[in-house]
Amino acid sequence: MSVNTVPVLPTGPTGKPIKTTDLHVGEAEPGCKKRDPILVVDGVRRTFGGLTAVDVDHVEVPRGAITALIGPNGAGKTTLFNLLTGFDKPDAGKWTFDGRPIAGVPAYRVARFGQIRTFQLTKALGLLTVMDNMLLGAKGQSGENLFRALLPFLWRKQETDNQAKALDLLTRFKLDTKKNDYAASLSGGQRKLLEMARALMSDPTLVMLDEPMAGVNPALTQSLLDHILNLKAQGMTVLFVEHDMHMVRHIADWVIVMAEGKVVAEGDPHEVMKNPAVIDAYLGSHHDEDIGEDPAAEVEHVSAITELLDDER
Amino acid sequence: MDWGAIFNNAAGELISPTTAAYALAALGLAVHFGYTGLLNFGQAGFMALGAYGYAISILTFGFPVWGAFLVGVGASVIFALILGIPTLRLRADYLAIVTIAAAEIVRLLFTTNAFASVTGSANGLSGYKNEFAALNPLADGTYGFGPFENNAYDTWLGIVAWSIVILAALFVWQIMRSPWGRVIKGIREDEDAVRALGKNVYAYKMQSLILGGVLGTIAGMIFALPRAVVPSNYQTTLTFFIYAILLLGGAATVLGPIIGSMIFWVLLSFFSGFIARAVEAGWLPFMTVVQGSQLRFILVGVAIMLIVIFRPQGVFGNKKELAFVR
Ligand SMILES: Nc1ncnc2c1ncn2[C@@H]1O[C@H](COP(=O)(O)OP(=O)(O)O)[C@@H](O)[C@H]1O
Ligand SMILES: [Mg+2]
């Protein structure tokens, strides 16, 4: 993949993004087979004391598409992300990435395989410059070895190349003017952009974004959306967690719905919203105060869902 | 009051081997704490391993200087591994607890009578300087001028000590501006983010712990060469003095620990000379000479507090960084 060419956004004649379709085999139901899955998850369970945060029987993430992982607060989306990326250990279960079993593989190795994640709470490295943040994302740097670090001529060329690549990405993310500023001086939305740009430095195959839009100034939302669409245009697979249903419907090719740790529905973004299981998950056949639901968020979900259903008619 | 002698002694501390030793130990802590964010509260333990490793190798085993040096360095690498393997995967505070305890264990092992024949117990060890002195290319006599005038042994020790400090400073400066240093600083900011970018954080933290520890160990050897090795020199207070020096100079800097050590020792010597003479002259009638020697630490503490209040990033720290400290 070359970063020098900014790909044309995959939008159709109506200005809407072109959706990737025909991703699954058979009925669109929880755990359904995909034509070309990049991530295949089997029997993954994670409990915290008495609480089962994640209990996924089977789920497949289609390659080359944008998949949204949605579900109410506390559904277990972040926990599933942590498990799949090696940041947390499950009680049981296994999964493969690109055909390679990676259960029990430490997080840094998962990342080296090309499965890169971002965090719900942004992790910009505050006292590093924006450029250093970016350079940290590059793979296979020989100067990251303590002994070779002493001999700059061994890594200077690679460093210059990485800087050029970083500057290119920063320009696309409109952060190039900030390259020498501390990341701590960026706004919340700019940090999200930086985290995403940094992830791209390693040329990942699967990008996992945990709530990329949370806390982002609405003025930046559109550009973030375009960046996510761009990832697909460049051949990457995207799995992202999001609350904003409009956004999900706008860019996702496939939607996986989680509730109380389980996958309760899957499908095309337009169809899945009509699924009674989804409406149940959001409107709550459960009114368990124990799971720590945030009432404000719940109201928000309800309004988002009703709004969407109205849209569909 | 003999102001001349007070200033003379204070100025002499500026380039004394002891100042070099503290500078080097603080540079090790800069690697740990300032750059990597590792809370090592056991730097005194690393220094003790250097001092005892060197002295025991020479006195008990008759090793040459370079052999004794390698024994000290090897001991500190093993010590760092013992500290790091169980704790570096855990939250940052575990390392702090384990290092402070381990350094005390090391000191108590050197103090206990059980190994008195090798360690000299509470009396410590002496008589290990001849091997180092034998390497001295300088002829007998005095060298230097004014406050910096020394005999041949002290001059030789000073040259070696400060050469090591300069080499170590260049080494740290170079690795911290390399991609390796970028990973290390990233770990200080947020190790999960660095892990998510495919870096083996555990291995980097271990390298940092070993590297800073070895610098502390070499500092321990330099510290031992102008005096005897006494276990009570390696109490936790020593670690805190090193931290004071580090914060004084600037935690994530290379020059900070060196200049911090100079400021610390010059102030300490100045106050100590001043108070001793003030007590003698009857200016402080409520005080004995022994109490006076405690007072100097209080005054150094106050001086350091003033510097930290008016220049919280340390002498060499970057003011811009401080604006973002949470
Ligand atoms: N480290 C933890 N310890 C205890 N409970 C946790 C922990 N992490 C998550 N949980 C619980 O697991 C459930 C799922 O959380 P999470 O995965 O963050 O949900 P989501 O990202 O879908 O909002 C929640 O009930 C949460 O309180
Ligand atoms: Mg979450």
Notable traits:
heterodimer, A: 313 residues, alpha/beta, four-stranded antiparallel β-sheet, 10 strands, 20% strand, disordered N terminus, B: mainly alpha, ABC transporter involved in vitamin B12 uptake, BtuC, two-stranded antiparallel ribbon, 15 helices, 71% helix, globular, binds adenosine-5'-diphosphate, binds magnesium ion, transmembrane helix (chain B), branched-chain amino acid transmembrane transporter activity (chain B), cell membrane (chain B), ABC_transp_permease (chain B)
Helix content of chain A: 25-40%
Largest sheet of chain B: 2 strands, antiparallel
Which ligands are bound?
adenosine-5'-diphosphate, magnesium ion
Mean pLDDT of chain A: 86
Low-confidence stretches of chain B: none
Shape of chain B: globular
Please indicate the percent range of residues of chain A in DSSP E strands (runs of 2 or more): 15-25%
Number of helices of chain B: 15
- Classify the beta-strand content of chain B into a percent band: under 5%
Largest sheet of chain A: 6 strands, mixed
* CATH fold type of chain B: ABC transporter involved in vitamin B12 uptake, BtuC
Helix proportion of residues of chain B, in percent?
over 70%
Low-confidence stretches of chain A: 1-6, 286-293
**Helical element count of chain A?**
11
Write down the Rg of chain B.
20 Å
How many strands in all of chain A?
A: 10
Keywords (chain B): Cell membrane, Membrane, Transmembrane, Transmembrane helix
Membrane topology (chain B): Multi-pass membrane protein
Organism (chain B): Cryobacterium melibiosiphilum
InterPro entries (chain B): ABC_transp_permease, LivM-like
